[in-house]
């Protein structure tokens, strides 16, 4: 099925369920990243090491899996979207999240990145020459303003550097999702993310070795890194890219609206972070805007 075509009801339903599975896997990314890097007053693994190590470990798994499957090499026209996807999902998003979570709690990151579904949908609409309605764009702008208001209030009347990292993480993830999902319309989704990771090995593996930490870290931090490597960086995309293709990128991307709440809930037992009323209120407001935006019509631009 072409990435820009209208999915059938059956494919859309399958895409939504697969998207939910991917979101369940990704929801633990924020708590696990915070556990891996540690806070400013008790640092664990360096953010640059976590970024490179999770990608390198997943890349080695991907290379072995591709060899076992006998997967065909990417064609010439596939290298560019592979590189874009790698920049977004292998480098940009993990690095910016790791840098941000050294400074702010996982719950803060979950709320700020709550606009990721709208960012993905907006980028997909532009990329695939679709035309969202005015209502959609109003929801997208409103969601961004809510996120900035939350970050401003949480920062004590100002934005902190971590908020910039989180917004850059949103842009990176949206770019990687759309590019990867387009490739998933041509070859199996599990091959797409595996080739993205395997082709990144010449960069990520030396970087992980060079950034290897000198100071010891807690066993829980290494366990969190193992989760990020196996699930957040690799297996989660098996479900997510296939979901974006089956159900349509603009629609299925909105399944991520539940991800901030799952991340908020998981941060309580994993990190012991308190869930306060202000954080929950902002998260609910972002959710409401995303739900409205999900229902707003999106139509394709007529071909010339």
From TrEMBL:
Main location: membrane
Membrane topology classification: Multi-pass membrane protein
TM region(s), chain numbering: 16-36, 48-68, 80-101, 107-127, 134-152, 158-180, 192-212, 224-243
Pfam families: EamA
SUPFAM superfamilies hit by this protein: Multidrug resistance efflux transporter EmrE
Family membership: Belongs to the EamA transporter family.
UniProt-recorded name of the protein: Drug/metabolite transporter (DMT)-like permease
The species this protein was found in: Sphaerotilus mobilis
Lineage: Bacteria, Pseudomonadati, Pseudomonadota, Betaproteobacteria, Burkholderiales
């Amino acid at each position: 099925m072409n990435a820009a075509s209208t999915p059938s009801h059956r494919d859309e339903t399958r895409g939504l369920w697969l998207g939910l599975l991917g979101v369940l896997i990704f929801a633990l990314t924020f708590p696990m990243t915070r556990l891996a890097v540690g806070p400013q007053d008790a640092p664990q693994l360096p953010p640059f090491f976590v970024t490179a190590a999770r990608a390198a470990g997943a890349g080695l798994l991907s290379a072995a899996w591709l060899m076992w499957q006998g997967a065909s090499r990417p064609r010439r026209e596939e290298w560019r979207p592979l590189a874009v996807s790698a920049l977004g999902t292998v480098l940009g998003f993990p690095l910016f999240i790791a840098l941000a979570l050294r400074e702010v709690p996982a719950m803060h990151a979950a709320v700020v990145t709550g606009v990721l579904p709208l960012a993905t949908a907006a980028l997909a609409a532009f990329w695939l020459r679709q035309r969202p309605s005015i209502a959609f764009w109003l929801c997208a702008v409103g969601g961004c303003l809510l996120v900035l208001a939350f970050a401003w209030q949480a920062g004590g009347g100002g934005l902190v550097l971590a908020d910039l990292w989180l917004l850059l993480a949103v842009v990176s993830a949206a770019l990687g999702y759309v590019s990867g999902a387009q490739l998933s319309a041509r070859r199996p989704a599990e091959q797409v993310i595996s080739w993205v990771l395997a082709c990144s090995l010449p960069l990520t593996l030396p970087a992980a070795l060079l950034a290897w930490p000198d100071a010891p870290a807690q066993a829980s931090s290494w366990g969190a890194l193992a989760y990020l490597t196996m699930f957040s960086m690799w297996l989660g995309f098996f479900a997510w890219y296939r979901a974006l293709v089956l159900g349509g990128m603009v629609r299925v991307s909105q399944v991520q609206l539940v991800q901030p709440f799952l991340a908020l809930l998981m941060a309580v037992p994993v990190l012991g972070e308190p869930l306060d009323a202000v954080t929950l209120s902002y998260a609910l407001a972002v959710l409401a805007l995303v739900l409205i935006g999900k229902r707003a019509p999106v139509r394709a631009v007529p071909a010339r």
